[in-house]
Amino acid sequence: MSLIYQDPSISHDEANRLLANGTTANVVAALTSIGLNEVDRVWAQDICLKHLFNETEAIVASAATALGHIARRHGEIDTETVLPALERAKGKFPSLVGIIEDTLDDIGAFT
Fold this sequence. Notes:
Largest sheet: none
InterPro entries: CdiI_Ct-like
Number of helices: 6
Protein name: HEAT repeat domain-containing protein
Organism: Pseudomonas fluorescens
Strand content: under 5%
């Protein structure tokens, strides 16, 4: 068996291009990179919040995870906006409760 590593580092401009493309795989890749690498915390948070209300579960999961990465990397996040949004996403996709709880734990630990 062969495993292929895909580096999640994508430039800001490339992330925007992938988000605009709209395919699930591209949006997930962009959100992953944004969570792990984006230096503009406010922009990253806004992009993740926008995608937290997507109809595709994989995109919502990636947006939630990226919010946890942003909190961990930057040591801050807009909790007044993010926490209620995560709760709404949890209600919409009960299968994502574990992922969202992990994100809430990251926010609690790092902000």
